[in-house]
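Regression check, protoporphyrin IX containing FE case 409:
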Amino acid sequence: MDALDGTEIIDALLTPAGSANPYPIYARAHRLGPVSRIWDEMLLVPEYRTVHQLLRDSAFGVADAQARGGFDPTFHEHSARLLLSRSVLENNAPDHARMRSLIASVFTARRVAALAPAVRAAVDRLLTELADLGADGTAVDFMETFAFRLPVGVICELLGVPESDRFRFRDLGSALSVLLEPVISPQELATADAASDELVDYLGELADQRRAEPRGDLVSALVQVADGADGRLSDQELLANLLLLLVAGFETTTNLLGNGLALAFEHPWAADGLRSGRISSAGFVEEVLRYDSPVQLTNRLPLVEGLSVAGVPLSPTGGVLLLIGAANRDPARYDRPDLFDPTRQDSQALSFGGGPHYCLGAQLARLEATCALPALLSRFPRLAPAREPVRRSRLVLRGYQSLPVTVRG
Ligand code: HEM
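Current build output:
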């Protein structure tokens, strides 16, 4: 089995068994070296040092609309793909810097820090609901009742999306985030287009309302800077970035909470440490991010000719798959990488990316998880898995579809 080449590695990752547990496959990828060739002109990079460096290298960029149109002739027929290509996530300099600085000017560290009391209140409320639902010993799905509801509530609060509209977002978010997967079916693409159209209509109306009657929320603030004197964000860009903030705001953090609870179940000493305060919530959350990252891979394209990656030449029409999940388990970077150790110092996992596209929501995701996980474990000292959890069938966004628990033993 060790004799797998790069293509066999990626093929193995794309099987249901591979995406359910990619870590043994990542270990084999490390044994192949820092980079290996896959498919026609692509390179696969599992090494921490190289992933870290490529994310920051201005000679590489994300696949933008022009690049995507080049390798996917149907790209322009898909509203979801087109919309995402107008967001920060799929633009390079100079458009990326223009959009990102506008968003960052309103989605500030101060605004996120000010959310802390609202996050604590939401955690308390959801824990009480969990207690009520599981009071008679019934199994409750943690993903549905808590892991999804907390981040969706928080991002909607931040954006200014009314409470009554939030229940629709779980399915719509899931339909859209499939676009991040390396291989998707025509049916999934059609569902993503429909989800994108529905959310664009919804967010367009919300933006119009806030334009007419601004409030203290992020949609009002973003509409204001978008409409600024120098007309800095087009209407399409405004909607694309609002949609990205909404979906990125819960799809990933939901998985961080689920992956974190599953790891607490697998490592009762760590859960006890978190309850007693012997293990810091920040240390626990950083180790969850490293050990089982909610985002497992991203990709980059060369922006200039004549590049190579760790000595391997890259064709100008090639690309690079950066295995974040493998980099976080790189034996050259981490002592005993397959050990879950929330007392690690200076872990600096690559789960939020790096360089110009570094995750805009990292501070918010950390705030939610460091508040929620210790509160959950302390509130329910006998919290336990009720049945085997079910993983989502995704490679890129790694998390659980369901994680049934009982709150009292
Ligand atoms: C555990 C939770 C999260 C993880 C693991 C995560 C991961 C990432 C990663 C890896 C990237 C970079 C992708 C690349 O370079 O190709 C990214 C970008 C981004 N994330 Fe997150 N994210 C999380 C939570 C959030 C939240 C809560 C928000 C919004 C409130 C958010 C908004 C964004 C945005 C807007 C970008 C694009 C930034 C850019 O392209 O300049 N993320 N995220």
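Comparison notes: The longest strand covers residues 298-302. The chain has a mean pLDDT of 95. No diff flagged against the previous build.
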